[in-house]
């Protein structure tokens, strides 16, 4: 992990409470949380929030991002449209660790209608506690990014 620990959070209306729980959890672990909302529970559109969080990571303003919607799927698809973003949806801690170690994911997506709070916080801890292994995995990540010639 880089010395700076700045992480962006966003969600749609389906995940506001879980986003707040994640924010509290990671702030207590020393992360500087940049929560870009939304703050109110009105129905909104997950692509807006997924792309905004992704841009905060892609620009270098934040080192990591965590995004949430009902399933985690739609907001992940939106985030992955931003160049340089590698975001996976996780419902288990093993996958969350592996998307860091093997895929060098810089964003994690969680479905608030899929996992409960305790499971979500375990997933977050696994994601943030893991490091990219590089080596053969770097070759493959370069292929994702189109840097393989
Ligand atoms: C909103 O109802 C829901 O579609 C959204 O939160 C998400 O699950 C989409 O992928």
If you had to describe this structure to a student in words, what would you say it looks like?
With 149 residues, this protein is of the alpha/beta class. The chain has one domain: Ribose 5-phosphate Isomerase B, Chain: A (3-Layer(aba) Sandwich), CATH 3.40.1400.10. Helix content is 43%, strand content 16%. The protein has 6 helices and 5 strands; from the N terminus they run E-H-E-H-E-H-E-H-E-H-H. It has helices spanning 16-28, 46-58, 73-79, 93-101, 117-129, 136-144, and strands spanning 6-11, 32-35, 64-69, 87-89, 107-111. A 5-stranded parallel β-sheet has the order 2-1-3-5-4, with helices on both faces. Strand 4 (87-89), helix 4 (93-101) and strand 5 (107-111) form a beta-alpha-beta unit. Helix 1 (16-28) crosses helix 5. The longest helix is centred in the N-terminal third of the chain and has 13 residues, at 16-28. The radius of gyration is 14 Å and the shape is globular. The model has no long low-confidence stretch (mean pLDDT 96). The site of D-ribose (RB5) has 8 residues, from helix 3. Residues 12, 14, 46, 69-71, 73-74 line the site of D-ribose.
């Amino acid at each position: 992990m880089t010395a700076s620990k700045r992480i962006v959070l966003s969600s749609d209306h389906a995940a506001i409470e879980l986003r707040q729980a994640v924010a509290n959890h990671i702030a207590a672990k020393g992360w500087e949380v940049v929560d870009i909302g939304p703050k109110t529970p009105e129905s909104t559109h997950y692509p807006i929030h997924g792309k905004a969080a992704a841009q905060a990571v892609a620009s270098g303003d934040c080192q990591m991002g965590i995004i949430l919607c009902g399933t985690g799927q739609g907001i992940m698809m939106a985030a992955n449209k931003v160049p340089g973003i590698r975001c996976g949806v996780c419902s288990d801690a093993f996958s969350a660790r592996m998307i860091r170690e093997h895929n060098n994911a810089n964003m994690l997506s969680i479905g608030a209608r899929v996992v409960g709070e305790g499971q979500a916080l375990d997933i977050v801890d696994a994601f943030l506690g893991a490091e990219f292994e590089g080596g053969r995995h770097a070759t493959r990540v370069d292929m994702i990014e189109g840097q393989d010639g």
